[in-house]
Design brief:
The protein is of the alpha/beta class and about 325 residues long. The chain has 10 helices and 10 strands.
Length: about 325
C-alpha cells in the first residue's frame, strides 16, 4: 500500500459539499420540514401519516452520505498497484510458404514430404515467441491460409488439413507465392520480415530468382527449407499410381539442392535441410532479438510507462448494497 493514491483526486473535492448537503437535509427533516413553525404540535401529530408499529423509522441521510462517499471515492480511482502493460511488440514478422504441389506427396522422407513439412512448421511455430506469423500455400497458384497474426493456435489448426489433394489445380509455381508473402508483409505493416519456404523444388526458377532478389532489396529475407532427398522418390499421380514420362518410365522427384541454395542466396536468407532446421530457428530468433533491441534503444527516450490499475471497482458492491437498502420501503 506504499503506492496508494487516487488516479483522479479532483473528485474528492465533492466530498465536503455532499457531507454538508446530507447534514442540512437531515436537520431539515428533524424539524418536520419547517411545519412545526406553522402548525401546533398537537395538530401536527394528527396530520402525519400513521407509522406501522411503535418503532420509529431510521433516518436515511447517514446511509445517503455513506453512499455518496463511496461513489465519490470510486470515481476518484483509488489504486495501489501497477497494471502490467505491453508497451512494445517485437517487430518480427514471419510468412511461412508451404509447397503443396503433387510431388510433396512423395515418400522418400517418412511418412511423406508434406507431413514432414507440417512437422517442421510446427517446430517453427513453437519458437515464434512474439513474432507475427502468416501462412501461404501454393501449387499452381498461391493461397493465403492466414494473414499475419499472433494467434498461433489458429495457424496450427489450419495447418493440419493442408495436403496436395486440397489444391484446385496442380502446379509448382513459387514466384507468385513469394509475391503473395511480400503482399502479406506489406498489408500487415510487417517490419524485419522473414519468408520461410518449405518446398522440394519449383518449376519457375528464373521468375523465383527475380522475385527473391526484389524481396531482398525491400529488406525481406527469403529462407528455404528443403523437403525431400537427392535420390528422390516416385511422384504419386493421385490415382494410386505414379507419374510416368512419355516413354512410360516412372518419374522420380529429386531435391535440387543447388537451385534452392541459389534462391536463398538471392533472397538474402539461408538454405537448410530438415535436419538443419534448428539452426535456422536459432538464426530467426537471433535476428528478431537484434531488431527488438535496436528499435527499443531508438524508442527508449520516449518511453514513459506508469499505468496503475483502477481498484475503485471494489467499492461498487457495497455501494449497490446501500442503494438497495435505501430503495426498500419501510426501512428509512
Amino acid at each position: 500500500m506504499t503506492g496508494f493514491h487516487f488516479l483522479r483526486p479532483v473528485w474528492l473535492a465533492l466530498l465536503p459539499p455532499l457531507w454538508l448537503l446530507a447534514l442540512w437535509l437531515a436537520r431539515r427533516r428533524a424539524r418536520d420540514g419547517q411545519w412545526s413553525r406553522l402548525v401546533d404540535a398537537h395538530l401536527l401529530s394528527l396530520l402525519r401519516l400513521a407509522e406501522n408499529g411503535p418503532a420509529r423509522r431510521l433516518s436515511p441521510w447517514p446511509l445517503v452520505a455513506l453512499a455518496w462517499t463511496l461513489a465519490t471515492l470510486a470515481l476518484a480511482g483509488p489504486t495501489w498497484q501497477r497494471q502490467p502493460t505491453a508497451v512494445y511488440r517485437a517487430p518480427a514478422s514471419w510468412v511461412l510458404v508451404l509447397d503443396l504441389s503433387p510431388s510433396m506427396a512423395a515418400t522418400d522422407v517418412a511418412p511423406d514430404r508434406v507431413t514432414r513439412a507440417r512437422y517442421a512448421i510446427q517446430d517453427l511455430l513453437a519458437a515464434a515467441q512474439d513474432a507475427r506469423v502468416g501462412l501461404v500455400a501454393f501449387s499452381g497458384e498461391p493461397y493465403t491460409v492466414t494473414p499475419l497474426t499472433t494467434d498461433l493456435a489458429t495457424v496450427r489448426l489450419l495447418l493440419g488439413p493442408l495436403s496436395p489433394a486440397l489444391m484446385p489445380e496442380a502446379g509448382d509455381q513459387l514466384a507468385p507465392a513469394l509475391s503473395q508473402a511480400a503482399q502479406l508483409l506489406h498489408s500487415g505493416q510487417g517490419s524485419h520480415g522473414q519468408v520461410i519456404v518449405f518446398t522440394d523444388g519449383f518449376a519457375d526458377p528464373a521468375q523465383t530468382l527475380s522475385v527473391a532478389s526484389q524481396l531482398r532489396e525491400q529488406g525481406v529475407a527469403v529462407n528455404i527449407v528443403g523437403i525431400g532427398s537427392r535420390s528422390g522418390a516416385p511422384e504419386p499421380d493421385g490415382n494410386g499410381g505414379f507419374v510416368r514420362d512419355s516413354a512410360g518410365h516412372v518419374v522420380l522427384s529429386r531435391l535440387d539442392v543447388d537451385m534452392l541454395r541459389r534462391v536463398a542466396r538471392a533472397g538474402g536468407g539461408q538454405y537448410v535441410s530438415l535436419e538443419q532446421l534448428p539452426s535456422l530457428i536459432a538464426s530467426l530468433q537471433a535476428a528478431s532479438s537484434r531488431a527488438l533491441h535496436a528499435e527499443s534503444a531508438a524508442l527508449q527516450p520516449q518511453l514513459r510507462v506508469a499505468r496503475w490499475r483502477n481498484d475503485g471497482i471494489w467499492l461498487l458492491p457495497p455501494l449497490l448494497l446501500l442503494a438497495a437498502l435505501l430503495a426498500r420501503r419501510g426501512w428509512v
